[in-house]
Amino acid sequence: MEAARVWRSCGINRVSLGVQSFITRELRQTGRRHTAETVEHDIQMLREAGINSLNVDLIAGLPGQTVTSWEQSLQWIERLRPEHVSVYIFEVDEDSRLGKEVLLGGNRYGALSVPDEDLTAELYERAAQYLASLDIQRYEISNFAKPGRESRHNLKYWKSEPYVGFGLDAHSFDGERRWGNPDVLLEYLKAGKPAVETSTSDIAEEHFFVGLRLSAGMEPTPQEWSRFERPISKWLAAGMLERAGSRLRLTDRGVLVSNEVLQEFVNV
Predict the structure, then answer these.
(1) pTM value?
(2) Helix (H) or strand (E) holding 2
(3) Which of 45, 84, 195, 235 could form a disulfide with 241 if both were Cys (CB 3.0 to 4.6 A apart)?
(4) What is the pLDDT of residues 217-230, one digit of tens each?
(5) SS3 of residue 109 by DSSP
(6) Residue 232 maps to which CATH number?
């Protein structure tokens, strides 16, 4: 409690909790030690300390996850009433023990019980519907919030606005160029300055790649309409994109295959 009060006195007004699931057996498969009750206690503590903008992360597609267990996790969201919820799709990461096991076709760590793509998509859609019933609306592919409680920090990324990152492995963007700090502590301390890596971004590609993630979509420039005419026409015809005046946005179907859609706007 004292730590949370110090955070609030320093100006911290938002905390994100990497819950992933409220089901103990699912948590243990991923090596997590907390429980649903731990999360409930922490949220109460944060609110008592004056931090009243809280996010909870959930992952759809964890080993052993079912429609029933997923709905139980969503019921905890209704019980705890966070202002913001992030729902991510489970991804196989070759650097994790579970990811390696899945790629090798093994059976440890619940690798054989990872839901297939159809079930994972159903879990995501159920989450979107359930959260909407709580007035927690989707405003980005993986992010849902009560009205006015969207993450201002992350919106800067999706709107391609400049930002500055401080510390180990932090990245920055000035509207044209990107740079990042070393991700190894000794290298970071020796560098004495940021910008060890620089790259010039293709602003038009990024406009589509991040802008289409937003539920509100994005508004291409006349030059972008021309340059990206082929992928735009393809996905409009397929029902994955829709046009509203001068704006483009993903349809509900398009959200489920967003990686495939967005990839076609890279290197065009």
Answers:
(1) 0.90
(2) helix 2-9
(3) 235
(4) 999 999 999 999 99
(5) helix
(6) 1.10.10
